[in-house]
């Protein structure tokens, strides 16, 4: 079965063809997410992508991973934050199926990343998995016995909104955005001259300010992981997002901080690992989401 996977983000839309085993059939393509301060043109782009891909490929299904809170049954975006203006109530599944007469399935991007890592990546077939993605913000997803836990409002796992001290949230202190802002204050280097990779490289060269900024971020992250561990008791925690590329630097530090903070060592997850699938995690998870709903 040939399936077109589309991963919709706030800055870019990635896409490519896969078979139903999750193997890529084409290169990974990428285009800019077109938007203004008040609206977006995402569905125009999605329609154009499908039209272009059908010229050279027989598409039997469309698997969509997208930013925003998603109703996975109706396949529409029920809530989207300010990063994608006018995206709330976008009927993705209905639009694709009505225009192209092809089955489509839609799921939240962090949920898809978690499914990808559960199916093919760092948390392969874990009985209970929590995936947290760290980037501009902090996202989360929960998989129990191979099934996503959506919650009644389809927003289960949104740990980035957990309250922290002084009226802040977890993503205010544990995101890459927070890391960069903190390091900028410590070093007097402007934010626009920094990114997460630069800070990690400085830390690996034993720069004290970079080490301190990362440690501050991880200390905040641990508060979120503690809450998840106490409530869900997951077998596996997967750390995703761009930060996962720092696997060798991060994994042992995160596990040590969690072990030091947790009330009992017997409550520790069996595995705390960085994600393995990189930029393709969301699309691979979207493929899995599609195939399990269309297995004949």
Classify the beta-strand content into a percent band. Answer: 15-25%
Please summarize the sheet with the most strands: 5 strands, mixed
- CATH-level-2 architecture of the largest domain: 2-Layer Sandwich
Query: What separation lies between the terminal Cα atoms?
Result: 11 Å
The number of distinct structural domains comes to: 2
- Total DSSP E strands: 12
Structure explained in plain terms:
The chain is an alpha/beta fold and 296 residues long. It folds into 2 domains: 2-108, Nucleotidyltransferase, domain 5, CATH 3.30.420; 122-276, ATPase, nucleotide binding domain (Nucleotidyltransferase, domain 5). The protein has helices spanning 42-56, 92-100, 109-120, 170-174, 176-187, 196-204, 208-232, 247-261, 281-293; strands at residues 2-8, 12-19, 29-32, 61-66, 69-71, 76-79, 104-108, 128-134, 138-144, 147-148, 236-240, 271-274. Helix 5 (176-187) packs antiparallel against helix 7 (208-232). The mean pLDDT is 96. It comes from Alkalibacterium gilvum. One of its GO terms (molecular function) is kinase activity. Keywords: Kinase, Transferase.
